[in-house]
Amino acid sequence: MKLLTHNMLTSNIIKGVTKGFPLVINPSRVEVQEVDFNPDFITRVLPKLDFTALKQAATQVGHADKLPEALPETADFGEDLQKTLHHVLLQVEVLEGELVCPETGRKFPISNGIPNMLLNEDEVS
Amino acid sequence: MAARDRPEHQAPPEIFYNETEARKYTSNSRMIEIQEKLSQRAIELLALPEDTPCYILDIGCGSGLSGECLTDNGHVWVGLDISPHMLEVAREREVEGDLVHGDIGYGMPFRPGSFDGAISISALQWLCNADKKYHKPHKRLYTFFSTLYACLSRGARAVFQFYPENSAQVELITSQSMRAGFTGGLVVDFPNSAKAKKMFLCLFAGGGHQQLPQGLGTESDSDVKNQAGNSARQRWKDKKSAKFSRDWILEKKEKRRKQGRDVPTDSKYTARKRKTLASRR
Ligand SMILES: C[S@@+](CC[C@H](N)C(=O)[O-])C[C@H]1O[C@@H](n2cnc3c(N)ncnc32)[C@H](O)[C@@H]1O
């Protein structure tokens, strides 16, 4: 699971959960995998990001060092920051661990890089 | 296909798509080719902005064949599937997209406005089945479509290639999608050919009026170019084979120049093979 995916994932499909975001990450294995740098894509997803949640997630998986506290106001980021975002969003992978619903504490296991968001029948809204 | 032969009637998807079935998606070249063709057409129907890498959801992504088409078209994707074996094959294939294990009938677990578009290849008909005694197809379809609507950006499209069993299923699926707020409808390619006929549900998530695309090889399409279907496919084929050729590069550079971008000048070296170039994957 990439942190970009994590930034979009919620547990609000559980009955009674309103926001379900951001899910807490308890990682047990994290790896960095090389992905081609694509600045146009970073620019494209930027407006969709919840940066506070990204910073939190990056801290939880131990890759927050180069991320600033907040994004600059200007649209022009400079290559350094774009590359940092690229790294944190697309190259850092949580391979094993779990996600935790911030409202109910319900855990979703991550194995082989794939978070399991399946619900039990009584949780379905 | 006789009703009893339909995969959805044999077992729930997480059982039907077992190891043996999942293996076919790496070994059966005919199956692979079909999936790729359908994916390419679905991506075409998404009508994404040109030359822009987008963020796309692949619903029922399975072994990642459809996802690889998204990658080839320059997009970044997330796939969701209920079958662990299919997801396993996708991992083995080292697809570039990220994978999530989930049941689309429980809703899409993503924040509002996450994706620029969604595709789904040969998965939607599965939702018409009640695999557990508490499954109500119309309710699962509605949950699916309404949560999908929310996680798409406004004006985005969702394109589903699917194999409905009968017209009642088409009616059930479309009515639930419209109830969830989508507009759009069915696009049928080659409606008069039993073999080539393909159905696409092409949905728009708000964002003002959008024209439903025309099916390939249809009547109204026929006098313009009866080859419309052929030509669209041919264009894709040409594009594919000619990709990275000198003409392809020159054309691309010209387009970029027109957009006011900084582009290196053409020379006799343009598109020449470079020995040091790392091989493309
Ligand atoms: C014909 S396969 C699609 C193959 C895929 N497009 C590919 O490229 O490999 C249909 C897929 O839909 C998935 N599916 C069926 N019902 C589903 C559900 N309720 N939730 C999620 N995925 C589902 C199946 O597990 C299967 O992988």
In short:
With 125 residues, chain A is of the alpha+beta class.
Explain what this protein looks like in three dimensions.
- The complex is a heterodimer of chains A (125) and B (281).
- Chain A is of the alpha+beta class and 125 residues long.
- Chain A is built from four helices and four strands; from the N terminus they run αβαααβββ.
- Chain A has helices spanning 3-8, 39-45, 51-60, 79-91, and strands at residues 24-32, 92-100, 107-111, 114-115.
- In chain A, a hairpin with a 2-residue loop joins β3 (107-111) and β4.
- Chain A is globular.
- The mean pLDDT of chain A is 95.
- With 281 residues, chain B is α/β, with parallel strands linked by helices.
- Chain B has two domains: 3-240, Vaccinia Virus protein VP39 (Rossmann fold), CATH 3.40.50.150; 241-281, no CATH class.
- Chain B has helices at 7-10, 13-16, 19-27, 29-46, 65-72, 84-92, 137-151, 167-179, 219-222, 228-242, 246-258, and strands spanning 55-59, 76-81, 98-101, 115-121, 152-162, 183-189, 198-204.
- In chain B, strands 3-2-1-4-5-7-6 form a seven-stranded mixed beta sheet, with helices on both faces.
- In chain B, α7 (137-151) packs across α8.
- The longest helix of chain B has 18 residues, at 29-46.
- Chain B starts with 6 loop residues before the first helix and ends in a 23-residue tail after the last helix.
- Residues 223-237 and 274-281 of chain B have low confidence and may be disordered.
- At the A-B interface, α1, α2 and β4 of A face α6, β3 and α7 of B.
- The structure holds S-adenosylmethionine (SAM).
- Residues 13, 17, 25, 35, 60-66, 80-83, 86, 103-105, 121-123, 126-127 of chain B line the site of S-adenosylmethionine.
- S-adenosylmethionine (SAM) is lined by residues 13, 17, 25, 35, 60-66, 80-83, 86, 103-105, 121-123, 126-127 of chain B.
